[in-house]
TrEMBL record:
It comes from Aspergillus rambellii. This is Vacuolar protein-sorting-associated protein 25. SUPFAM superfamilies: Winged helix' DNA-binding domain. Belongs to the VPS25 family. Coiled coil: none annotated. The lineage of its organism: Eukaryota, Fungi, Dikarya, Ascomycota, Pezizomycotina.
Amino acid sequence: MSTTLESIPPFKYPRAYTFPAFFSLQPNSTTRQNQMNQWSDLIQSWCRHHRMFKLSLAEAVASPLFYNSKLHKQLNLADARTVLDWMAKGSEEGGGGKRAEWIDGANKSTAWIWWKRPEEWAGIMVDWVESTGQKNIVLTVYELLEGEATTSQEWHGMDVDVMLRSLNVLVKQGKAQVFGSEGQEGVKFF
């Protein structure tokens, strides 16, 4: 069963999205910290709702994510980049818990949005493997992403790069082995 745009319920914006000040980064450090947390939650929720793993800032600032058409208010590109920079920092660095990661380095135009980090996806996959008796069975990455057995799983249809990063977490933990060439990877869970 594939999801169509018509079957996706509308996204529910948080209350802060209705306040004009939300779209201007606040100078007070306490207020800004709260604002950054709210933007981080909104971005993660938006991406999760739309099953997005990569966010292009150029496209996003023109979308309803960063532009409230009812208020005619928009978070500009520089401020959106500041929010994602904050999301990319760890909590110990005064940031958003590494919920974003720049894909293109210093360019900072496209980012992974980790509404679930690769470590979290890895844990979910291990639980699925154990509950379905898939240990010591070779599966293709394509089967994990698009197969009938995974249609009810949250990772079904995810970006292949996110899947591979998640599987690499399991490889480092000694819980899986990934092999094969690009586009034809297989995985065996232990």
